[in-house]
Design goal:
The relative contact order is 0.10. The longest helix has 29 residues. α8 links the parallel β18 and β19. This protein starts with 5 loop residues before the first strand and ends with a strand. The protein is globular, with a radius of gyration of 25 Å. It is an alpha/beta fold and about 500 residues long. The strands form 4 sheets. It has an 8-stranded mixed beta sheet with strand order 7-22-23-21-20-17-18-19, sandwiched between helices. A 7-stranded mixed beta sheet has the order 10-9-8-11-12-13-14. A 6-stranded mixed beta sheet has the order 1-5-6-4-3-2, with no helix packed on it. Helix content is about 30%, strand content about 30%. It has 3 domains: about 80 residues, OB fold (Dihydrolipoamide Acetyltransferase, E2P); about 200 residues, Rossmann fold; about 180 residues, OB fold (Dihydrolipoamide Acetyltransferase, E2P) (Beta Barrel). The structure holds S-adenosyl-L-homocysteine (SAH). S-adenosyl-L-homocysteine binds next to α7, β18 and α9.
Length: about 500
């Protein structure tokens, strides 16, 4: 098989990143490779082909773009017969943008795909036999658009000197310019529009105003926004490769004044148009009027993929915004993690609380607690909740949030869970009744899993944004005697391949 050859195939399956999988049956055309060279993937159906932007059931013409030893990558050239699950993506940039890789699948088939992905990880990686019977449901959204409370837009300049603000194209760092993103809060469209003018004006005066990632030169790197969906409070954070906009003090002040006024205009324009058009949103979210509550600069001078640096400087308003999940109120700083889909988060945390099954007498650990979101939910129903989190700013927020909600039965530690938890356990010997973990994608450190096992809780609730590492950790814990009881999947990130899973494990069988 050679590059640039074209084939017609039918898509039979979807891979972990949402790419379609089909087979090329033409066994003669293998470029001199024998069937053995294709290992398991050269099965009876032929050579495995991965094709982006395709859906199970599509009959497509593909051009081979990369030949690997055991499989090939094809580019979608033509849809000969569309799958019944195929829809026209609601965003015209969906194919080039790396964000919504599933947007060309009907929402229902996106949900099926995510549920099956979780089941398959639990079976293949987790060694769970009846995973299908244990996964209760995938909970999707009624209206899977404009759901995100946080957006992160990289800023750049194209070769003609035009400002680009948007998202990275899939697997690259080239920026797809966007006027609008239909996954985010609508106020972002007005912010992007007005900031584009403000950035262009400054770029015309000073070519180093915008960051160039390749050269690691220039100033403005990212625009990060967050809206409290139940308060309307808006935070705008500009990430810069420097300490200020300009060394010239009066110029620096002027740039900031212009920035503030362009953002206030954006908010006014949003409020004027959408409060009228979005009556339903107003009704369901209470005071939906957006107000600029925090404007800050984040200093990131590193050559890194990490968007935010360690230092934040508030240049207008408060240091944080406020939002609610259910009845619990949270202060959220620009640097702190806060679930991006507020509607689904409330449901997800409700399930975590159901699985924790608290009566009021329990001692609970919430590991990877962020700003204490799950901890405070639990604290309403538990005797005592301990939380641990690595970001100092988030732990400061967690402590303030406990006070804000008059929840005095909490104690927060800042540091790595895998270092703090074993240390606290050794010093106090306290064995929690229930443990909740909500780690980042890479999952839990085995040192932490060992300590969890030693602590021998009655129940372990694991919230995960990556079913593969979740399944790996479940396997590790199963070998120590824990048992998977139930799981529920939540579509927190509609149109992307990601989902959130919450599982209940019973403690070690004695
Ligand atoms: N439970 C919170 C946060 C979950 S996200 C919520 O639902 O909002 C995962 C969190 O783990 C992030 O806040 C991240 O900063 C934190 N984290 C990452 N590595 C960690 C580690 N080794 N120890 C403790 N916290 C860590």
């Amino acid at each position: 098989m050679n590059k640039n050859e074209e084939y017609i195939i039918t898509i039979e399956d979807i891979g972990a990143d949402g790419e379609g999988i089909g087979h090329i049956a033409d066994a003669d055309n293998t470029g001199g490779l024998s069937a053995d060279d294709f290992g398991d993937t050269k099965d009876k159906r032929g050579i495995t082909v991965f094709v982006k932007d395709t859906v199970v059931g599509d009959e497509v013409k593909v051009k081979i773009i990369k030949v690997k030893k055991n499989y090939v990558y094809g580019r979608l050239m033509e849809i000969i017969k569309p799958s019944p699950y195929r829809v026209t993506a609601a965003c015209p940039k969906a194919r080039s943008c790396g964000g919504c890789t599933l947007m060309h699948m009907s929402y229902e088939s996106q949900l099926d795909y995510k549920k099956n992905k979780v089941i398959s990880c639990l079976e293949r990686i987790g060694g769970i036999r009846d995973a299908e019977g244990l996964v209760e449901e995938i909970y999707g959204m009624d209206a899977p658009y404009n759901y995100r409370n946080k957006m992160q837009f990289p800023v750049g300049v194209d070769k003609d000197g035009n400002i680009k603000i948007g998202f990275y194209a899939g697997r690259t760092h080239s920026i797809i310019d966007l006027d609008e993103c239909i996954t985010g809060h609508k106020v972002n469209n007005y912010i992007l529009n007005n900031l584009r003018i403000w950035i262009s004006d400054n770029y015309k005066k000073d070519k180093s105003f915008v960051y160039n990632e390749e050269l690691h030169k220039g100033l403005l790197r990212h625009i990060v926004t967050r809206v409290g969906f139940s308060t309307g409070e808006l935070s705008v954070c500009l990430v810069i490769n420097g300490d200020r906009f300009s060394r010239d003090k009066s110029r620096d002040v002027k740039i900031k004044e212009e920035l503030l006024s362009c953002l206030k205009d954006a908010v006014d324009e949003y409020n004027k148009f959408y409060l009228e058009a979005d009556k339903k949103a107003v009704e369901s979210n209470g005071d939906y009027k957006v107000k600029l509550t925090n404007l800050s600069l984040n200093i990131n001078k590193e050559k890194t993929n990490k968007i935010l640096g360690d230092k934040n400087i508030t240049i207008y308003g408060e240091d944080y915004i406020t939002d609610y999940i259910g009845d619990v109120r949270f202060n959220v700083s620009p640097q702190s993690f806060f679930q991006v889909n507020p509607i689904q988060t409330k449901r997800l945390y409700g399930k975590a609380l159901e699985y924790a099954d608290l009566s009021g007498n329990e001692i609970v650990w919430d590991m990877y607690c962020g700003i204490g979101t799950i901890s405070l939910f639990l604290a309403q129903k538990a005797k005592k909740v301990y939380g641990v989190e690595i970001v100092p700013q988030a732990i400061e927020d967690a402590k303030k949030n406990a006070v804000l909600n008059s929840l005095t039965n909490t104690e927060f530690y800042c540091g790595k869970a895998e270092e703090i938890v074993p240390k606290v356990y050794e010093e106090t010997g306290i064995k929690p009744d229930v443990i909740v973990v909500d780690p980042p994608r890479k999952g839990c450190d085995t040192t932490l899993l060992d300590t969890i096992s030693d602590m021998s809780p009655k129940r372990l609730v694991y919230v995960s944004c990556d079913p593969a590492t979740l399944a790996r950790d479940i396997k590790y814990l199963s070998d120590k005697g824990f048992r998977l009881k139930k799981a529920a999947v939540y579509d927190q990130f509609c149109h992307s391949t990601h989902c959130e899973v919450v599982v209940l494990l019973s403690g070690k069988q004695k």
